[in-house]
Amino acid sequence: MVWCRLSGLLAVAAVTSAAQFPLVQPNVKAQNIPGSGFGADQYDAGLFTPLGDFSTLSTDEFTTLGHPLFPNYNVRIKKSDFCDGTVGTYTGYIDVQARHLFFYFFESRNDPAKDDVIFWTNGGPGCSSSLGLFMELGPCRVTSPDNSTFNPYSWNANANIFFVDQPIGVGFSYAEYGETVSTTPEAAKDIAAFVAIFFEHFSQFKGRAFHMAGESYGGRYIPVFAAEVYDQNTKLVEAGLTPVNLSSVMIGNGCTDFATMVPSYYDMTCSPASVAPIMDISSCVRMKQAVPRCQEALQKSCVDRFDSMGCEAANLFCEVEISEPFFDTGYNPYDISKPCDGPISDTLCYPVTKAIGAYLDRPDVRKQIGVDGFVSANFSSCSNEVGAAFHAADDEIFPTQFYIGALLERGVRALIYVGANDWICNWVGNDRMLLDLEWTGQEAFVKESLTEWTVDGAAAGLTRNVGPLTFATIYGAGHMVPYDKPAESLELTKRWLAGKEL
Ligand SMILES: *[C@@H]1O[C@H](CO)[C@@H](O)[C@H](O)[C@H]1NC(C)=O
Ligand SMILES: *[C@@H]1O[C@H](CO)[C@@H](O)[C@H](O)[C@H]1NC(C)=O
Ligand SMILES: *[C@@H]1O[C@H](CO)[C@@H](O)[C@H](O)[C@H]1NC(C)=O
């Protein structure tokens, strides 16, 4: 999903086991991708004909595409004609030697030949983007293992869109020889290669405005992925290729900066920041006293300098004092306006996640979208193994907002939107992070007050904007904004893609 596993507590929520990925041996050290062979000397444009458009692809089998500049990479792609019914739909793998990243691609319902391209990933770390696709912003919503319905609010309303299972070990993506990925910067290498290869092969999309979007732990992934794509452009240009037209990052209910997020759990449970306080007074007073100690310890051992032992101890203190009391309430950590529906370890609080898993286990569905036989018969929404590897590498303890600042300075726009009822990656923490963020527009941004934005005359949330940076909340939505507020979420996306203020 969907959630971000800031605290080790949430590891229980993942619905999988290592046994389902028997090919992935957790003890094998992650390998760097061998050089992709960037360099004009290896590139003879005359030998390479881009596929251009998708019309020649088969529905029965994959077409495999190589590129002389990326000798270690192939794309396998097929027409899959599912889920939307009104647009071209393609699925496949980007093969990085023995690493295989699965993707879904839906053309725009408006004008595929002109509309922007969106990349989408869910979070976790370790959760499949099929959750975003079939539950939130995709062209269809799975309603039962045997059924899905057309989603009129899909984000492909006026954009071409990818859903990628990443990193390897997640969803239908896998590695043959036990490689694992345990940090976001490592995952970013595969994603940047994926993006370059896509635009090289499908030349009709070359130069098209490109938006990298994600949710939850996507608040960590997306800024790093976008930075990698941005920096990679230098190499593409040196090699005589067209750079990727990275236009924006879009982060929904992101956990980007743990140091502002963790203390904000107090505000979410003990103040009327979204709903009326949900915790009892004595717990709130105890939490209130723990907040400055938590902040001070995080600052000292995780931010000012990184000392893994001290930082982990600080995190543990914050978890015990500030996160755990919330979990004891039984509320839904993704939407504090309601209780969790089902045990979180079984349903992630949303029973539809089980229907999505069962749907993706159907042999006919797997055949239609071309899932490799290597992949386990039992679909996992989230991989515990990948989540645990990222956690062990302290990947979530990083001031990822620095990437956002750097992207803003280079003209890449950033939309940070947050469903107002989410606890785990909440709006208070995101707001504080952005107010603290150093960039040229900071002073102006801090001076802006939050104002209401509307959809069809009705208040939809609060927003603050300066130049390339927009912050927005969505009233009545939890962690998964497009699930709870599909019309508002699509409207937000449309206005953002059009470069308008909310
Ligand atoms: C699938 O769902 C749609 C919309 O809810 C419904 O009309 C249709 O009858 C369902 N189909 C099956 C096979 O259950
Ligand atoms: C990148 O996309 C923007 C927005 O659509 C467009 O204005 C610009 O011309 C594109 N840049 C290139 C180099 O194609
Ligand atoms: C898949 O799930 C079924 C039913 O829950 C179980 O019986 C089976 O052992 C699982 N298979 C694998 C490979 O984990």
Which helices and strands, and how do they pair?
Elements: E1 63-66, E2 73-79, E3 89-96, E4 99-106, E5 116-121, H1 130-137, E6 140-144, E7 147-150, E8 159-164, E9 174-175, H2 184-201, E10 210-216, H3 218-238, E11 246-254, H4 258-270, H5 281-304, H6 308-327, E12 331-332, E13 335-339, H7 344-347, H8 352-361, H9 363-369, H10 384-392, H11 401-409, E14 413-419, H12 427-436, H13 442-447, E15 451-455, E16 458-466, E17 469-474, H14 481-484, H15 486-497
Parallel strand pairs: 5-8, 5-10, 10-11, 11-14, 14-17
Antiparallel strand pairs: 1-2, 2-3, 3-4, 4-8, 4-9, 6-7, 12-13, 15-16, 16-17
Helix pairs in contact: 2-3, 3-11, 4-5, 4-6, 4-12, 5-6
Q: How confident is the prediction overall: mean pLDDT?
A: 88
Overall geometric form: globular
Helical fraction equals: 25-40%
Helix and strand content put the structural class at: alpha/beta
- CATH-assigned fold name of the domain at 18-260 and 397-497: Rossmann fold
Main beta sheet strand tally, sense and closure? 13 strands, mixed
Give the radius of gyration.
Answer: 22 Å
Q: Give the CATH class of the domain at 18-260 and 397-497.
A: Alpha Beta
Number of strands: 17
Note the beta-strand portion: 15-25%
From the 3D coordinates, which CATH architecture of the domain at 18-260 and 397-497 would you assign?
A: 3-Layer(aba) Sandwich
Query: Poorly predicted ranges (pLDDT <50, ≥5 residues)?
Result: 1-46
Alpha plus pi helix count: 15
- Ligand roster: 2-acetamido-2-deoxy-beta-D-glucopyranose
CATH level-four homologous superfamily name of the domain at 18-260 and 397-497:
Alpha/Beta hydrolase fold, catalytic domain
Distance between the termini: 26 Å
